[in-house]
Amino acid sequence: MRSDGDVRTVSMVFGSLHDLWWVVAKSLLLYVTAVVCFRIGERRTLAEMSAFDFVAAVAAGAIVGRVPNAHDAGYLAGAATLITILLAHRLTARLRFRPLLAKLIDHPPRLLVADGKVLDAELRRSGLTRQDLYGLLRQHGVDELASVRFVVFEQRGQVSVVRRGAAPADTELLRDLS
């Protein structure tokens, strides 16, 4: 005959069938809710991520992963939390159209190399070393600094390399460089 201790141990390890079905149901509902929210949202959420995109994606993943296992949180609480996070993300994306707020939200692009000369102060501001820069240049097929007109560390962390001999620079494209 089983003791209450044996039943509790089995329940702690495997849980109850009722709880398992509720976890599965909440997981599926939250997954569908997340897919719908991301689908309704802008593509930028899943494209190259800025800091606020990353926070929204991680928060959404945490909600979808945590709520189904939380006995004290129902689907509606999880869905409301998920929708709130994604609406805050959308609002932040909209606020980026205001120049002052965009400066607070986004990193500015930085000119790292100008006419083959490394701008060490801009490297430091970007949190990069010369070795980081050299590795990025090699990835772009650059084998000597003298062949580079300029290198820009973009807002999302990519590096743009323009070589000497390329078409003249459009000053509009270079205006926001620090």
From TrEMBL:
<feature type="transmembrane region" description="Helical">
    <location>
        <begin position="73"/>
        <end position="93"/>
    </location>
</feature>
<dbReference type="InterPro" id="IPR007353">
    <property type="entry name" value="DUF421"/>
</dbReference>
<keyword id="KW-0472">Membrane</keyword>
<dbReference type="InterPro" id="IPR023090">
    <property type="entry name" value="UPF0702_alpha/beta_dom_sf"/>
</dbReference>
<keyword id="KW-1133">Transmembrane helix</keyword>
<feature type="transmembrane region" description="Helical">
    <location>
        <begin position="50"/>
        <end position="67"/>
    </location>
</feature>
<feature type="transmembrane region" description="Helical">
    <location>
        <begin position="20"/>
        <end position="38"/>
    </location>
</feature>
<dbReference type="Pfam" id="PF04239">
    <property type="entry name" value="DUF421"/>
</dbReference>
<keyword id="KW-1003">Cell membrane</keyword>
<feature type="domain" description="YetF C-terminal">
    <location>
        <begin position="101"/>
        <end position="166"/>
    </location>
</feature>
<comment type="similarity">
    <text>Belongs to the UPF0702 family.</text>
</comment>
<protein>
    <recommendedName>
        <fullName>YetF C-terminal domain-containing protein</fullName>
    </recommendedName>
</protein>
<keyword id="KW-0812">Transmembrane</keyword>
<dbReference type="GO" id="GO:0005886">
    <property type="term" value="C:plasma membrane"/>
</dbReference>
